[in-house]
């Protein structure tokens, strides 16, 4: 049974989300503040965090950042009443895997959770090796561990899925939509820019000069490719 932590200060929204997730047979925990969320997160294994941005005390951005330090493998879906692109991008850069803007339909949240859980358990259909190697990089695609010349680089499950996809398809160009279908799933209905933000995040971790990438490159007018 997967454990989901719902972090939301509005009681009506939190209760509604928790009730519906329990009906789907998830083990559900709840917190109304960022402080309580971090306390719960530190005390037990949590698979997915549903995280509101606007919280009393510690805000959702800070909670997201702390969770990524504590457990890079946890899934994070941000909820926000804000619609500004800069807030969405900031949340994704800090480590969120996905986001929903309020008001939202419960079925949409459930679909996003299922999509994220699939990425957390992502396995290629082919008989690809567990350890993928390309240039100075080595990716353990089962344990979501990346190293460069023997030095470990902390990555999220979504970043691991992206890297696994690219390293299994070296020197091949892919459009944003093709990447969405392969990594996020054909039924993903979120913002396609999630691909661009995750690639930007990966570049910050692996590229000597993220503004001029040599591994995870942009094919202008088309999409992205992994060069070897």
Commentary on this structure:
This protein is an alpha/beta fold. The chain has helices spanning 11-23, 34-43, 60-70, 85-94, 106-120, 157-167, 176-184, 193-206, and strands at residues 3-7, 27-31, 48-52, 75-80, 98-101, 131-134, 137-140, 145-148, 151-153, 216-219, 223-226. Strands 2-1-3-4-5 form a 5-stranded parallel β-sheet, sandwiched between helices. A 4-stranded antiparallel β-sheet has the order 6-7-8-9, covered by helices on one side. A hairpin with a 2-residue loop joins strand 6 and strand 7. Helix 2 (34-43) runs parallel beside helix 3. The protein is globular and about 50 Å long.
Indicate the topology:
Blueprint: E1 3-7, H1 11-23, E2 27-31, H2 34-43, E3 48-52, H3 60-70, E4 75-80, H4 85-94, E5 98-101, H5 106-120, E6 131-134, E7 137-140, E8 145-148, E9 151-153, H6 157-167, H7 176-184, H8 193-206, E10 216-219, E11 223-226
Parallel strand pairs: 1-2, 1-3, 3-4, 4-5
Antiparallel strand pairs: 6-7, 7-8, 8-9, 10-11
Helix pairs in contact: 2-3
Element-by-element helix/strand order: EHEHEHEHEHEEEEHHHEE
> How far apart lie the N and C ends?
40 Å
- Class by alpha and beta content: alpha/beta
Strand content: 15-25%
Mean pLDDT: 89
List descriptors.
228 residues; alpha/beta; 5-stranded parallel β-sheet; 4-stranded antiparallel β-sheet; 8 helices; 41% helix; globular
Compact summary:
The protein has 228 residues and is α/β, with parallel strands linked by helices. It has helices spanning 11-23, 34-43, 60-70, 85-94, 106-120, 157-167, 176-184, 193-206; strands at 3-7, 27-31, 48-52, 75-80, 98-101, 131-134, 137-140, 145-148, 151-153, 216-219, 223-226.
